[in-house]
Amino acid sequence: MYLLPAKRAKYPRAFKWDDNMMHHFPKDFTLPVCPLLTMWTYWVCGDEIAKYPPFRILIASELEDVKTKRTLSSLRFVMLEIESRVLAQGAWVNNPSPRDAAEMLERLLSHVVNHLDEYLNTFSYHWTVSRACKAGLSRRGLEYLAARDPNWVDGDDAALVAVKKNFLHVLQWLNECYPDRTSWGNRQARCFMNIAAEKGHFEILQWLHTNRNEGCTTFALNIAASKGNLPMVQWLHQNRNEKCTKQAMDDAAENGHLAVVEWLHRNRSEGCSEIAMDVSAANGHLDVLRFLHENRREGCTSAALTMAATRGHLEVVKWLCTNRTEGQPATALCAAAESGHLAVTEYLYEVVRGRQRRSESTIRKAARSAMEAGHAAVAEQLEQKLKRQRLE
């Protein structure tokens, strides 16, 4: 039994079919309330249609008319899939109230409701297997379309899109049934394992490792470290031989992933570069900065202090001035003033004054930079400090 309101119809029409015949019922046709999945009726049609409580209900908003059993069979295929999802989640309800039914269905089947039109369109002849793969249609749907068009082609991007969108079941189906019609990329172009690592699709990464032989490059471990995905970093370390580069620790430090930095330090030999401390300082990751200072020998450059001052990371600026010698406080002072960071400017003023005998020109330059950048309060504060300094 199906409920199929026609497009632009003012009232729904009820149909049933058997023995290649389809029967139309009048609007006031009623059936006994079915205890199973009555909620589907309430949710899709609302309270006013509760008198149409068939076991399966389908809204076909894109259909002008339904005249052939072939068309209805396609719709039935869709509803069977929806029904199987409901039953798999234990949605077996005895006469729920409309409100309870709506809440339960919203929780269990919101994805079905939101994409029902997409399912219906999928089974039209405007769809292809390749397009269905890219849309993440279920395996049953893919099999249906492939059976309808056994000579389908144009699958070059199907697996690529499946990797990007995390459609593992699509990859499995393509690999099992049509591996020769599918483009699987390579290490030089469209490397699927690299893409999976970049997207954070761990399960797909593992599946590609087990079922395909295209492999990956150092980019996979580098990008996993950059994104702070420690489980993926550890798995790649244990299962792949492509290794990584210094960029792995550099990028992990830049993004503040201390756990990844620590793990790479203890388990990998590539190390890092001066960039690691520079970018961790620039982004205000003091914990990472301290770890690198205490455990690594690469050090940093003067850019660490300048960038930290430019971005207003006061605690990082204090730590660098106390623990490192690479920075140039005068340059950092001008950078902080130009960026309008008053607290950092005041701290660096004291540092510059304590370290430079002739600090007046530096302070005047910083005040001018602040004024030109529109930070009048910072410029005024420096001018006042400069006046008091002259009186001392």
UniProtKB/TrEMBL annotation:
Pfam families: Ank_2
Domain of life: Eukaryota
InterPro entries to which the protein is assigned, alphabetical: Ankyrin_rpt, Ankyrin_rpt-contain_sf, SecEffector_AnkRepeat
PANTHER family tied to this protein: ANKYRIN REPEAT-CONTAINING PROTEIN
Name recorded for this polypeptide: TKL protein kinase
